[in-house]
Amino acid sequence: MSDQQEPALRLKGIVKTFPGVRALDGVDFEVMPGEVHALLGENGAGKSTLMKVLAGMHQPDEGQIIIAGKPVRMTTPIEAKAQGVVLIHQELSLVPEMSAAENIYLGELPLKRFGRVDWTTLFERSNAILKRLNCNFRGEVTVANLSIANQQMVEIARALTVDARVVVFDEPTASLTDAEKVVLFEIINDLKARGVGIVYISHRMDEIFTLSDRITVLRDGAYRGTLTTADTDEDEVTRLMIGRSLDLSRDTAEHSLGEVVLEVRDLSCAPLFKKISFSVRAGEVVGFYGLVGAGRTEIAETLFGLRSPDSGEILVDGSPVQINAPADAIKLGISLVPENRKEQGLVLSMNCRDNMTLPQVQNLTTGPFVSSGAEIAIFDKYRDKLEIKTPSWRQTTRVLSGGNQQKIVIGKWLSMHPRVLIVDEPTRGIDVGSKSEIHMLLRALAAQGYAVIVISSEMPEVLRVSDRIVAMYSGQIMREFTAEQVTEDSLVQAISGIRTSEVA
Amino acid sequence: MTNKMRILLASCGTLALASAASADTVRIGITQNNVGIDSYQTTYERAFIAAADANPDVEVIVLDAGGDVARQISQMQDLIQQNVDAIIIWPTDGQAVVPAVRNAHRAEIPVIVTNSNIAEAGMEFIAAFSGPNNIQQGIYSAEMMCDALEGEGQIVQITGMPGYTTAIERQQGFDERLAEMCPGVTQLDIQPGDWNRERAQRTMETFLTRFDQIDGVYSGDDNMGVGALNAAIAANRAEGMVFIGATNFAVGYDAMGRGEYWGSVYQSPVDDAKAALQTALDVLAGEDVPKLNYFDTPKITQDNMEEFDRPVF
Amino acid sequence: MLLNRLKAGGPAIAKQGILVAFILFMIVFSLMSDRFLTADNIMSVFRQSAIIGVMAVGVTIVVIGGNLDLSVGSMLSFATVLVVDLHDKIGPELAIPIMVLATLCLGAINGFLIGILRLNSLIVTLGMLSAIQGLVLIYSGGQNVDIVDQRGTWFAIFGRGSVLGIAAPILIFGLMAIIFHVIMSTMPFGRKVYAVGGNPTASVFSGIPRSRVVFTTYLISALCVAVAAIILGSRVMGSQNNVGQGYELQVLAAVILGGTSLLGGAGSILKTVLGVLMLAFIQNGLILMGQPYYTQWLVTWVVIIVAVWLDVAAKRGRLFSPIA
Amino acid sequence: MSNLTDITPLRWLMRNPIWGFVLLVFIFFSLMSEHFFDYRNFQNILVQTSTIGLIALGMTLVMINGNIDLSVGATLALAAAFAVDVQSWAMFATWGNWQILPAVSLALLVGILMGAINGFIVWKTGVDAFIVTLGAMLGIRGLVFVYTGESSFYAMNFAYSDFSALSVGPFPVLALIFLACTLIVHLVLSRTVHGRNTYAVGGNREAAVNAGIRVGPHMMVNFMIIGFLAALSGVLLSTQMGAATPNLGRDYELWVITAVVLGGTKLTGGKGDIIGTLGGVLAIGILRNGMNLMQVPAFYVYVILGSILIAVLFLDKRFNRTANGGLRL
Question: Which range is the signal sequence, renumbered to this chain (chain B) (predicted)?
Answer without folding.
Answer: 1-23
